[in-house]
Every structure is written in C-alpha cells, then in structure tokens.
Amino acid sequence: xxxxxxxxxxxxxxxxxxxxxxxxxxxxxxxxxxxxxxxxxxxxxxxxxxxxxxxxxxxxxxxxxxxxxxxxxxxxxxxxxxxxxxxxxxxxxxxxxxxxxxxxxxxxxxxxxxxxxxxxxxxxxxxxxxxxxxxxxxxxxxxxxxxxxxxxxxxxxxxxxxxxxxxxxxxxxxxxxxxxxxxxxxxxxxxxxxxxxxxxxxxxxxxxxxxx
Length: 212
Known about the structure:
Mean pLDDT: 87
Radius of gyration: 23 Å
Structural class: alpha/beta
Shape: elongated
Largest sheet: 5 strands, mixed
Strand content: 15-25%
Oligomer: single chain
C-alpha cells in the first residue's frame, strides 16, 4: 500500500482534519502609545503568569495608571475571564473613579463581550495595541519587568493565599515607599497626592465665583 491509496481511503472515510478558523480580531482601531497627561487618564493592564510550588498556575492581572505610575491593582488567582476582570476594575474604581481610557493587548479577556460592554457602559475608550507590538503598551511592560524580577523571581509560593499576601505587600511598597525618577524621586502615591493637591489649589485660585 502506497501513500496515494492511503490518502484516497482517508479522504473517502471523511477523516480529513478541518482547518481551524482564525480568531476574529477586535474591530477597534489600534493606537500607538501616547504620553499620559492626567491621573485616571489611561489605565494600562496586562497579565503575568507564574506557578505555585505544586506547579499549579497563577495568573496575575496588573493594572497601572500611566500618569502617576501607581500600580492600581494586582489581582492573583488561578484563572480569570472577562467577567472577572470587570469585577476587579469596578472594585478599583470605587476608591479611584473610572479611567477615561484603558490600554490592553488583544487577549481574550480584553476582547470579551463582558469587557467591551463594561467600557461602553462607563464611556471608557478602549485603546488596543497592534498584534506583536508590546511596546505600544510600554508603561505596563516596564512595570511587568520590575514585578517579575523583584517579586515573582524572589519568592516561591506554596499557596494562593501566600502569593496574594506577598504580592500585596510588594505592591504597597512600590506605591508608597519606593521613589521613582519619573515621579521626581518620590513614591508614586505621594506624586499622585501632590498632583491632586496642586489641582485643588488651582481650582480655588481661578474659581470665577470667588470674584463675583
């Protein structure tokens, strides 16, 4: 029996493997990285993966404010879908307010119906980077490098609870203790507080109602 007969019998038995359809890309226009100009102007987000000591997967959702360089949140779990991501963002918005825009890659969590409906419901612009161009999300990529090197690579997590505690402590130190050159050699949380105070002072100084 030669290969031609095998192929004929294979085809007659309808054993041919169907070609997989290409995943549909989100219809939103891709946009290059732009400089953030205000707090809550743009939240960038991405996923970073790790594993527990027993090899069970850990998935970390990282959300960062492009202007203040604060880490808005790092959520750690074994798996997350679009609805899960939306719940995390709603919880973060309770204390910070909603962003005017979010920047993501083309991952299924960020192109899901739940996520797209969330952006439309709150009037949030969705900035998608081009495929295979991670530096269009440069703020979060820079943060991810520090996070992997200083947190994930330095700890061996035995449980999900331990991972959440260690990562929360690292995030707190990053936001409130560690100075950043991009923030004028002060921690991101202090930079954000100074900016809010400056904006409040300007609003009082230039309030037309005070001179009527």
